[in-house]
Design goal:
α3 packs across α6. The chain is globular, with a radius of gyration of 23 Å. About 14% of the residues have low confidence. The strands form 2 sheets. A 5-stranded mixed beta sheet has the order 5-4-3-6-7. The protein is built from 6 helices and 7 strands, in the order ααβββαβαβαββα. It has 2 domains: 29 residues; 138 residues, Glutaredoxin (3-Layer(aba) Sandwich), CATH 3.40.30. It starts with a helix and ends with a helix. 45% of the residues lie in helices and 19% in strands.
Length: 174
């Protein structure tokens, strides 16, 4: 009977180790960032300023009183490339109505690649290469877009591709 009791202990110990390992894998393997909300939403917009790749300097504080759309972009991001014509259409609407402005923030991409992309594909809005902005906005996966109300409050966070119509709807529907 001592031999049988020893076997039961070894099997029990093996099962216990397996369960602990499984719990560890599940705990480490889960990605809470995907389920978490963005803490910037509903708050005052973080600082968005710096030299623009398109020339000049941009500071979101100078846009107080108007809507601002902040788009995080990279040339290696398929969704960013897909949404670019929509951003061009939105920017044309924004410039023609004077109701909003658009600013892009480079996300982990060489500035020269981004400048070449804009030269080839169009887009006359400011493009900032300031990595700290993405950190302040808690950007996890691009494309990501934030809509800032004239008061300076972040009122919309869009993960994934955006359309001009969706952005206009947020601005005109609020």
């Amino acid at each position: 009977m001592a031999a049988g009791g020893s076997r039961v202990r070894w099997v029990s110990a093996g099962v216990a180790v397996f369960i602990v390992a499984l719990i560890g894998v599940l705990a480490v393997g889960s990605d809470d960032r995907l389920a978490a909300t963005n803490d910037v939403l509903g708050q005052r917009v973080p600082e968005v300023s710096g030299p623009s790749l398109t020339g000049g300097r941009y500071d979101i504080d100078n846009a107080r009183g108007t809507w601002v759309v902040v788009n995080f972009f990279a040339t290696w991001c398929a969704g960013c490339i897909n949404e670019h014509p929509e951003l061009i259409a939105f920017n044309q609407w924004a410039e023609s109505t004077g109701e909003a402005e658009l600013v892009a923030v480079v996300f982990n991409d060489p500035a020269d690649a981004v400048a070449a992309f804009f030269d080839e594909n169009g887009g006359g809005w400011p493009v900032l290469d300031e990595p700290g902005i993405a950190i302040d906005f808690q950007v996890a996966q691009i494309p990501e877009t934030f809509v800032i109300a004239p008061s300076g409050q972040v009122v919309q966070h869009i993960q994934g591709e955006v359309t001009a119509d969706a952005l206009i709807e947020v601005i005109e529907g609020t």
